[in-house]
Amino acid sequence: MSGSTSKHPLDFIIRTERIPHIWCPGCGIGTAFSSCLIAMQTSGIDLTKTAMVSGIGCSGRGAGYVKLDSYHTTHGRAIPFATGMKLANPELNVVVFSGDGDLFAIGGNHFIHAARRNVDITVICVNNFNYGMTGGQAAATTPNSAKTPTTPLGNPEQPFNLPLLAYASGATYIARWTMLHTRDLTKSIEEALQRRGFSFIEVLAPCPTGYGRRNRQKPIESLRLYQERAIVKNGAHPAEVVLDFDQGITLGNFVDVDRPTFTEAYDKICRPGSSG
Asked: In CATH terms, is domain 21-269 a member of 3.40.50.970?
């Protein structure tokens, strides 16, 4: 109708005054962020008791766009901030939404220990294979031989297998999807939000500005690779999952186990009888 303003279904959870966002055309972060917000809505969690935490980087801007209690923290420190929130107020639903550089390079040690402790938080890592915000430098997830400003001849290092790292560290829910697989991704985030313990979801997403142009990979080509190379293996052991744009990309929900959360273990040993 003339003069009417249609509302987006997620307007209630987005700080619309901060739109348009900063993400580049062809970037996959917006789709991953949308899946996260839809899952937060459909999971049934109490959004008045939910906080989103992000670090520094393109994905780290997510916390600034959500109309919830949100924290844009220092580089690599999203998980320790989130851990502190959860321990101070166990009733909170705490979601970490950040990137591969923030979570697995400068923040890698914090990820390992939060998973080891089984802190009851949900960590969503948008993996675009580089430090997209600060020039596209090589990151801990940059594929071997890929070109970046800091590896102009090709990356000589091997990237982390993030699901395997999460598994070895003690995460109790582990999944990997691409932003092309939005329904599966949304469902996986919903499951992670509804369960207890340290949940980790890797989201593969194109970065046309930082990574794609240096490796002659346009956004639509990235999506085509996600479609053609995807191998869905729910329940696969994290040591067997692969991320190879030539041979295949293993996707799925890999781990879903139950063990005491850090809060439960702490109360049992350090504060016996406190729950009664």
From this structure: yes
